[in-house]
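We modelled the chain as a single entity of 293 amino acids. Its sequence is:
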Amino acid sequence: MNREVVGKRVSLITLFLNSTLCIIKVAGGIIGHSHVLVADGLHSFSDSITTIGVIIGFKLANKEADECHPYGHEKIESIIAIILSTILLLTAVFIAIEAIDTFLANNYMMPSTYTIYFALISIIIKEVMYWYTMYYGKGINSPMLIADAWHHRTDALSSIAALIGIISVRLFELYIIETLVTLIISIIIIKVAIDIYIQSANEVIDKSANEMIINSINSKLNNIDGIKHIDDLKTRYHVNKIYVEIEIAVDPNLNIKDAHDIAEEVHQEIEKINKSIKHCTVHVNPYFDYTFH
């Protein structure tokens, strides 16, 4: 799959749906006297903004490597994901503050019955958008698209809070229920935002690959003839790809071609281990046994 084509297609579809939902919920909330539905509509608007950010991110991240950026522009994805997680965090805080302010001010009106249907439609559409975006986000291994998928899921949760609030007010006039449910959902959104932020930050600061991949590399190196010792092994994530740097020690009496052949075998075999490994750099050192008996 072409990452840019898939990412832009998914984002454009969800952008259209988000914008439509935003208009419907805000208009329905104003006409139907539902503050929570209006707030939910504004949440959908924030999702539209972040989806535009995703489209821009895919355009920039897929630019070819150039003289100033020899490793490519993929890290723009991680930067966009950090921005999205920050917006997600601020949205959650805004929702919580708005819920508390509305409750303390006792600024409630009895919502119309049809606002229940608006909330139900929003839940269904946003949940479908979450699974759709997450499926392709994982398919192309895009942290930016996965972060956007979580925006859809949080909007679905926000709509659930809106639904519970509307029903509890209409049936029992229990305004506190709406506030409590909204606060719980805000906490969940904050947790998701922090997780995305940490993952994306690790990609920007070149976090090493996980232990399973490192063990696989070591195992592969131990089975290649001619390697006397593994002097150094470093890995680093470059967004959704892994770069590997290896220093191996070989017999100092080998000629240059034989030493190069061993290094080339290492290069080829390591890049076969995992599809996420983009490049393996191999440095050859002479091996000297300094062990004394």
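As a brief sanity check on the tokenised model: The chain has a mean pLDDT of 82. The first strand starts at residue 229 and ends at 238.
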